[in-house]
Amino acid sequence: GQNIDQPTEMTATEGAIVQINCTYQTSGFNGLFWYQQHAGEAPTFLSYNVLDGLEEKGRFSSFLSRSKGYSYLLLKELQMKDSASYLCAVVDSNYQLIWGAGTKLIIKP
Amino acid sequence: IAGITQAPTSQILAAGRRMTLRCTQDMRHNAMYWYRQDLGLGLRLIHYSNTAGTTGKGEVPDGYSVSRANTDDFPLTLASAVPSQTSVYFCASSATSDWTDTQYFGPGTRLTVL
């Protein structure tokens, strides 16, 4: 079956760096998304990776290793507003989007 | 402000009742989607539409129906609600029907079926 694994919850300190991991086992691969979802709100797009490597976008970076079925989202200089859930989603070989359950990130002052 | 609107914001519904969740987008996106989000589970696709006039079934379509009469609107109907349909429902859209295209989400409808 298809599976996406993310830690359920993580805690980090304001100003620090945190890495949120996502591993996937899917029937093929056509790209990986990261979305941010604040409590009670809609998911919003953060990044899309289809090739191996690191893509940086301001304080957020996303890394992909297709051979390892692995991605991570790196958040630097954490701010209180980064407290949210982070959703990993993979496009499989049938071009269906498979969603992970999300990682709830708690930022402490 | 361009985007996706959903109505109602929240609803409490008696089991057996019929309910339509509304979704409208003004971005002229071709594709639209309905998801449900339950605690501890990833977003699950209910139905989708690649373009006006066409619809398709997602991962969990049973008990739900959709229509796509025009580009902007994509209502989701629960013909006879059951408690297991208690969830948060998100409508989304993307410019194309390519699943690698970014999806934009509405604010959600929180539905409770008693």
Describe this structure in words.
- The complex is a heterodimer of chains A (109) and B (114).
- Chain A has strands spanning 3-5, 9-13, 18-25, 32-37, 44-49, 53-57, 60-65, 70-75, 84-91, 97-99, 103-108.
- By secondary structure, chain A is mainly β.
- In chain A, the strands form two sheets. In chain A, strands 2, 4, 5, 9, 10 and 11 form a six-stranded mixed sheet that branches. A five-stranded antiparallel sheet of chain A has the order 1-3-8-7-6, with no helix packed on it.
- In chain A, a hairpin with a 6-residue loop joins strand 4 (32-37) and strand 5 (44-49).
- Chain A is globular and about 45 Å long.
- Chain B has strands at residues 4-7, 10-13, 19-25, 31-37, 44-49, 56-57, 64-66, 76-78, 87-94, 104-105, 109-113.
- In chain B, strand 5 (44-49) and strand 6 form a beta hairpin.
- The model of chain B has no long low-confidence stretch (mean pLDDT 95).
- Chain B is globular and about 35 Å long.
- In chain B, the strands form two sheets. In chain B, strands 2, 4, 5, 6, 9, 10 and 11 form a seven-stranded mixed sheet that branches. A four-stranded antiparallel sheet of chain B has the order 1-3-8-7, with no helix packed on it.
- Chain B has 114 residues and is mainly β.
- At the A-B interface, strand 5, strand 9 and strand 10 of A face strand 10 of B.
